Amino acid sequence: FADKLSGMCKTDRENYEKYWDDINPFIKYGCIKDEKFSKKMMDYILFKNIDGKYLTLEDCINENKKEEAPAENTEEKAETTENTENTENADEKKEPEKTTVYYVTDEVQQSQYINMFREQKMNAVILKDNIDNPFISHLEAKNEKVKFQRIDADLTEDFKEDGTDLKEMTDELTATFKKALNNEQLDVKVEKLKNEKVSSMITLSEENRRMQEMMKMYGMYGMDPSMFGGQETLILNAKHPLVQYILENGENGNTSLFCEQLYDLAMISHKPLSPDEMTKFVSRSNQIMMLLAK
Predict the structure, then answer these.
(1) Would you call 187 helix, strand, or coil by DSSP?
(2) CA distances from 68 to 31, 38, 64, 278 (A)
(3) What is d(CA 169, CA 190) in angstroms, rounded to the nearest whole number?
(4) pTM for this one?
(5) Within the chain, which residues score under 70 in pLDDT?
(6) How does 232-248 read in b/e, with b if 16+ C-beta sit within 10 Å?
C-alpha cells in the first residue's frame, strides 16, 4: 500500500493532491502505528498551507528557513567565512537547530492570526483533524530539526515594532484589566504591533496547549491545567485607540466594559467561548451598542 501511494505521488502528483484531504487521516494513523509504513511514507506526507499549496515536510522546512534567514551583507558574509573554522568543533556539540513549522487548526476562528501572518509574508500549514496532534508529536520525535507550533502559540518578533520601553504602560494596563476581569492570575503583555487594527489577542504556549488537549482526550477534566505552567496571555496593542483609551481613563467611565469586551474578542479568535461567556458577551455587545445609540 505504501509503495502504491509513494509511486502515485512521484508519477501523478496532481491526482495524489486531490485525494490527499480525504485519505491523509488514515495515512497519518498508519504512520503512528506502523514503523515500517512510517519510514516508507515520510517523504510523501503532504501539508496543505494557507494558500492551498501542498508541500512535503522538507518543503515546509526549506520555506521556513528562507523566512527566518536574515539578509546578509558582504562584510557579514566575509566575517562568517573567516570564523567558520574556529567554530566548527563548537557547533558539532550544539543541539541541532530546529526549524519552526507554524500550523492552523481552524481557518475561520484563527483568521486574525492568519491575516497577520500573510501581512508579514509568512506561511502556515492546515492541521485540522484529530489525528494531527499525535501525528506532529510523532514527526518531532523522528525529526530533530523540526518543531510544530500553532500560530497563536507566541507573538514572534516579525509582528512587533522595535524599540519602546512599555513597562510602565504594561503595569498600568495589567492592574486595570485584572480588576475589570476580577482575575488576579491574568497574564498581560503590551506590545507595539505592526498591524494597527489588532487591539488584543491571546497566546498560549504550544506545550501548554498540547497538555490541555491530552487532558481532554483522557478525560482529566478535574485537574488544573495551570499546574503544568502558565496559561493564556492577553496581548494588548499599545498603538490601538481602544487600548490607549483604557490607559488614559483608568477605572473611570466604561473602561471596565471595554476591558471585558477586548478580552472576549481576543479569546474568540483563540477558542470558542463557553455558553455562559457567550451569553455575557452578547449582552455586553448590546450594552455597548446602546451607549453608541444614545
Answers:
(1) strand
(2) 29, 29, 6, 38
(3) 7
(4) 0.80
(5) 66-96, 217-230
(6) bbbbbbbbbebbeebbe
